[in-house]
Amino acid sequence: MSDVITVNASGLSCPQPVMMTKKALADLTSGRVEVLVDTATSRNNVSRFAQNKGWRVSTEERDGGYKVILEK
Fold it and tell me: What CATH number does the domain located at 5-71 have?
């Protein structure tokens, strides 16, 4: 497996976290991307976007926010 890519979208409101995730996933066919967000809305939107692109999604609560883990 390649290195983990971390996208820090904490403090940003939608659609910025989704756009940052889209950019991170653009050149990947597999791997692991961790997206850091601080609202449930951003967590849900990033999760939905990634699932629609065929990525497995899991989430963890962390430091008052969320880590959305995308794997393929």
Answer: 3.30.110.40
